[in-house]
What does this fold into?
Amino acid sequence: MDIKEKINEIVEKIKKDPSLMEQFQKEPVKAVEKVLGVDLPDDVVEKIVDGVKAKISVDKVSDLAGSIKKLF
It folds into this structure.
């Protein structure tokens, strides 16, 4: 399993589905397992959850920076 590829896949699915985003914010492990469709060991899921959180944060900052650039 390519972790980076899975993280990108999960991020895209979460960003497109508001209810899944809400679940991810409340129960990130369950949300990730739901997207993957498998029950993984906690240590693997935690690494994926951390990667997804980081990617979503970076994407939000990037979107914000793009919005600010449009003002000037």
